């Protein structure tokens, strides 16, 4: 799930009554002002939300990334890190990392350990037992000495050419309530129990790792209802509504974000998180609208997209329906939101990755051209458009600072993956000892 600058959208919110209204919402309703209007940020592709009445994007703090070691890019069609090409990375002690950042990373890594030692690593790099020594040590390792922990138990490796892209996401907040009431008429659905996921690898080795979702109609397996069908009432009357949002456009973008908070007029907050998806194709409507010339110069931001959807309600509804992907939610309790490991993600340390290239739970060191993204991140989440080697979507938590940083995060630089000591040698690569100290790019 992508990112850009923002200005206040108060004028656009005044047009909510002309917004895109799903089948189940009374025509002509005027939702109350939301605290924020989301921008287009997938976890599916990396966009973020904008606040109502506040600038969302902070000016980047430029930085000069450390240079990756010379290596070819991953071959076209590469499916896993093991086949992308690996070389030794720098010694961990040579990497710039504050004690506080290392301590945050240790806490997050410790939380991931039970999953790390149990999960099958689809990247082809590790097995659960490889992580056990580090995880055992992490249980009692003092956080004040976290840099020494990572130095003692890990080696860094570079996947292919190491060239990385980092985007950002955060937990947005929109107007919504747990119970249906006037002004809150957009259903927030739980995952239906008739969605069936099929592992195609069970039918053909050529399709190993590929899955599809759909439903059974009679004796035929067919695609699940798409966004248009759901908006027009395909799921009504099944008791799947877990909450109600005020604005269908805001809920559309919160779906792309993957999790968020619903705040009612009484100030009560309900946290919701990703529970499933209908298996249909994700389409980024921002790119679609630009390609069709619908966004005038200076309107290619999310503000412009939102303005167009609200001022062209019929066409806007059709445009949103072209994104057939639909996300289902569950109410979240306790800490969170939860990432793909089923564990709470933490601002400034958790990240979404492609697990075919970065094992879920593993640490990743980023050295980017934007200083905020630099440091050690723990892979605890995934995203539909976070694909390929060295692609990292950084999580910033909730609140104004998180929104401001995530809102402009789109940086380039270098990534090194931290793996248990001895992994590279076992995989047939060169030992980590003697790897050169990284230098700043010129």
From TrEMBL:
One annotated GO molecular function: hydrolase activity, hydrolyzing O-glycosyl compounds
UniProt EC number: 4.2.2.n1
Region (Disordered): 25-59
Record-annotated Lytic transglycosylase MltA domain positions: 173-330
GO biological process: cell wall organization; peptidoglycan catabolic process; peptidoglycan turnover
Keyword Nucleus part of the UniProt annotation: no
InterPro entries registered for this protein in UniProt: 3D_dom, MltA, MltA_B, RlpA-like_sf
Pfam family, one: MltA
Ranges of biased composition (kind: Basic and acidic residues): 36-50
GO annotation, cellular component aspect: outer membrane
Keywords, ordered alphabetically: Cell wall biogenesis/degradation, Lyase
Catalytic reaction equation(s): Exolytic cleavage of the (1->4)-beta-glycosidic linkage between N-acetylmuramic acid (MurNAc) and N-acetylglucosamine (GlcNAc) residues in peptidoglycan, from either the reducing or the non-reducing ends of the peptidoglycan chains, with concomitant formation of a 1,6-anhydrobond in the MurNAc residue
Broadest EC class assigned to this enzyme: lyase
Keyword Nucleotidyltransferase: no
Name of this protein: peptidoglycan lytic exotransglycosylase
Organism: Sphingomonas kyeonggiensis
């Amino acid at each position: 799930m992508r990112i850009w600058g923002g200005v206040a959208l108060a004028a656009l919110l005044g047009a909510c009554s002309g917004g895109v209204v799903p089948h189940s919402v009374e025509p002509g309703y005027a939702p109350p002002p939301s605290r924020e209007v989301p921008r287009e940020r997938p976890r599916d592709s990396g966009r973020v939300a904008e606040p109502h009445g506040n600038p969302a994007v902070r000016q980047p703090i430029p930085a000069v990334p450390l240079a990756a070691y010379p290596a070819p890019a991953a071959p076209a069609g590469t499916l896993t890190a093991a086949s992308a090409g690996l070389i030794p990375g720098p010694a961990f002690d040579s990497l710039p990392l504050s004690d506080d950042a290392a301590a945050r990373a240790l806490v997050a890594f410790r939380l991931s350990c039970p999953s790390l030692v149990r999960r099958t690593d689809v990247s082809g790099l590790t097995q659960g037992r490889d992580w056990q020594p580090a995880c055992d040590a992490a249980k009692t390792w003092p956080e004040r000495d976290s840099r020494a922990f990572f130095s003692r138990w890990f080696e860094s490796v570079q996947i292919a050419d190491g060239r990385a892209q980092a985007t950002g996401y955060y937990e947005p907040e929109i107007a919504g309530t747990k119970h249906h009431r006037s002004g809150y008429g957009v259903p927030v659905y739980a995952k239906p129990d008739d969605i069936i996921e099929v592992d195609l690898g069970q039918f053909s080795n050529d399709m190993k790792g590929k899955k599809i979702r759909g439903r059974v109609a009679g004796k035929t397996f067919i695609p699940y209802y798409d966004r248009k069908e759901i908006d027009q009432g395909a799921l009504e009357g099944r008791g799947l509504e877990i909450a109600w949002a005020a604005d269908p456009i805001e809920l559309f973008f919160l779906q792309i974000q993957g999790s968020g908070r619903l705040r009612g007029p009484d100030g009560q907050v309900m946290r919701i998180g990703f529970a499933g998806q209908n298996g249909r194709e994700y389409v980024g409507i921002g790119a679609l609208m630009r390609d069709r010339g619908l966004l005038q110069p200076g309107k290619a931001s999310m503000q412009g997209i939102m303005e167009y959807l609200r001022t062209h309600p019929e066409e806007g509804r059709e445009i949103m329906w072209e994104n057939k992907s639909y996300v289902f939610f569950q109410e979240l309790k306790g800490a969170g939101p939860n990432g793909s490991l089923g564990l709470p993600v933490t601002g400034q340390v958790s990240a979404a990755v492609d697990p075919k290239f970065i094992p879920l739970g593993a640490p990743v060191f980023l050295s980017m051209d934007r200083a905020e993204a630099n440091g050690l991140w723990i892979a605890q989440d995934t995203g539909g458009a976070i694909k390929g080697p060295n692609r990292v979507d950084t999580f910033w938590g909730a609140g104004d600072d998180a929104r401001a940083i995530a809102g402009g995060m789109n940086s380039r630089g270098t990534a090194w993956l931290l793996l248990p000591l001895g992994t590279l040698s076992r995989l047939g690569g060169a030992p980590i000892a003697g790897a050169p100290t990284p230098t700043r790019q010129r």
